[in-house]
């Protein structure tokens, strides 16, 4: 999906179905609450690089029927999706295509043979499509990003409550194997009482934000209409916005550790940003000072740092670092009164347990039952590691889709729901506002309207989904 969206529709008032909708979401999704489904009929909106990955996993499941897909890019992405489907089905089955412009997904949503949709499109379309899906009676799984404004977050929540249809947030890092093992450690009290957590998105995206218009990644310094894939739309956010544009890879897993929106909630955020230098340097280094894009001024600071305060007294540091040469890291840290774990260098230290005082040790290997990771390997990974082998992002993508499909089949609540997604999405506009105001405090809305106090954690409590 490469076209720009129409102007965002006016958002629903916060009071829409505040009574009726709340009761609807207090149990399983209305759409599937009274039936067990042997198969889930899915349509995909967006079959670019990310959408193709979802399509591949859907095709390989016996409990999923791929009914249709929608994408306006008939020159590049649609042929790839068509080829994948043809090769898988051997030409024996037809999957409907909706390729007549960026709004044709609405016609796909009119079908009565689709239960759910997977939305993997440019960020600015996510909530528009999720809202349209819910209003059409389809349950949406939505890829992650940051919202344009807080109203967008409320629109997702209000529509979900008004329709009684759940929204599944597709944050795959929540299912990363070491992250789930550390969640298991925290739940079993290894770190003591939690005090501080860190996470973020530290990933050199310069070859993603620029390409030569002939390949998905790198090879040139074009973006916008002259580029392909994410460089066609994602780079424009770096051009016009300055904040944490992609917060959920860090906040999603951390939120599970601290029971965000389920006995705890985020209260406030303060954000600051460095100057913007990395993208300009990349253009000059790879395209020369005379290239037209060398004159472009990008707004996004090379590194954006945010400090969040929670209701239960923990602090959270989030980082967004995508314009600099650096190895990949999500900068995770889980710290409590007994010790801490850090993602980088596989580091852990537990007081009176670690072999040496005041000295790091390795978290270990999942194949070693005596190591931390081996001992605390999550039951989900113990059960499904072989099924997830070969799936995208080290198997994480399999777990995301499996959770979505299994919840629909069972009529169960989503472990990553609309309240989580609204909270993740809200970090972006709030961080932008804080940066613009010199690091001012921004207050994070309570999208549960007080129900966080009584909602219980449900993410990955066993080996089911």
Radius of gyration: 22 Å
- Tally the helices: what do you get? 15
Walk across the major sheet and give the strand order: 14-13-12-11-7-10-9-8-15
Low-confidence stretches: 1-34
- Hey, roughly how much beta strand do the residues contain? 15-25%
Helical content stands at 25-40%
Helix-strand sequence:
HEHEHEHEHEHEHEHHHEHEEEEEEHHHHE
Which structural class matches the secondary elements? Answer: alpha/beta
Number of strands: 15
Largest sheet: 9 strands, mixed
Distance between the termini: 30 Å
Question: What form results from the Cα inertia axes?
Answer: globular
- What is the arithmetic mean of pLDDT? 92
Report what the structure shows:
Helix 5 runs parallel beside helix 6 (150-163), helix 6 packs antiparallel against helix 15 and helix 10 (248-257) packs across helix 15. Helix 5 links the parallel strand 4 and strand 5 (139-142). The chain is of the alpha/beta class and 465 residues long. The protein has a 9-stranded mixed sheet with strand order 14-13-12-11-7-10-9-8-15. It has a 6-stranded parallel sheet with strand order 3-2-1-4-5-6, sandwiched between helices. The longest helix has 19 residues, at 418-436. It has helices spanning 20-25, 49-59, 77-89, 105-109, 126-135, 150-163, 177-187, 206-209, 234-240, 248-257, 278-287, 372-376, 379-388, 396-410, 418-436, and strands at residues 40-45, 64-70, 96-98, 116-119, 139-142, 168-169, 194-202, 266-273, 303-310, 315-321, 333-336, 339-342, 347-350, 361-362, 442-443.
């Amino acid at each position: 999906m490469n076209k720009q969206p129409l102007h965002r529709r006016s958002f629903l008032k916060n009071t829409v179905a505040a009574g009726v909708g709340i009761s609807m979401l207090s149990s399983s999704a209305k759409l599937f609450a009274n039936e067990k489904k042997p198969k889930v009929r899915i349509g995909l909106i967006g079959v670019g690089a990310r959408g193709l990955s979802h399509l591949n996993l859907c095709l390989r499941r016996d409990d999923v029927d791929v009914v249709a897909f929608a994408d306006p890019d008939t020159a590049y992405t649609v042929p790839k999706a068509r080829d994948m489907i043809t090769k898988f089905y051997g030409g024996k089955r037809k999957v409907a295509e909706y390729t007549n412009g960026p709004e044709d997904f609405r016609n796909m949503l009119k079908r009565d043979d689709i239960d759910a949709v997977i939305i993997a499109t440019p960020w600015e379309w996510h909530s528009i499509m999720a809202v349209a899906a819910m209003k059409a009676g389809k349950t949406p799984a939505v890829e992650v990003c940051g919202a344009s404004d807080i109203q967008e977050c409320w629109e997702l929540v209000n529509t979900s409550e008004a329709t009684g249809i759940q929204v599944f947030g597709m944050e795959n890092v929540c299912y990363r194997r070491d992250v789930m093992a550390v969640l298991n450690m925290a739940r079993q009290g290894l770190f003591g009482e939690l005090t501080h957590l860190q996470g973020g998105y530290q990933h050199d995206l310069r070859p993603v934000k620029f390409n030569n218009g002939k390949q998905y990644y790198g090879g040139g310094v074009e973006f916008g209409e002259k580029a392909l894939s994410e460089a066609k739309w994602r780079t424009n956010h770096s051009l016009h916005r300055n904040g944490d544009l992609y917060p959920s890879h860090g906040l999603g897993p951390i939120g599970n550790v601290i029971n965000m929106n389920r006995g705890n909630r985020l209260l406030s955020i303060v954000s600051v940003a460095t100057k913007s230098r990395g993208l300009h340097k990349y253009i000059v280094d790879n395209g020369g000072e005379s290239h037209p894009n060398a004159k472009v001024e990008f707004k996004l600071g090379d590194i954006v740092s945010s400090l969040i305060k929670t209701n239960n007294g923990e602090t959270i540091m989030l980082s967004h670092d995508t314009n600099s040469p650096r190895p990949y890291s999500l900068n995770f840290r889980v710290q409590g009164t007994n010790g801490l774990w850090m993602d980088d260098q596989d580091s852990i230290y537990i007081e009176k347990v670690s072999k040496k005082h005041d000295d790091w040790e390795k978290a270990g290997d999942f194949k070693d039952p005596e190591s931390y990771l081996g001992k605390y390997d999550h039951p989900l990974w113990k059960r499904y590691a072989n099924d997830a082998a070969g799936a995208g992002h080290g198997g994480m993508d399999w777990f995301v889709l499996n959770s979505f499909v299994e919840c629909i089949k069972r009529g169960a609540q989503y472990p990553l729901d609309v309240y989580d997604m609204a909270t993740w999405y809200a970090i972006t506009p709030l961080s932008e506002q804080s940066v613009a105001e010199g690091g001012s405090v921004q207050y994070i809305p309570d999208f549960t309207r007080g129900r966080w106090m009584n909602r219980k954690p449900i993410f990955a409590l066993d080996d089911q989904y």
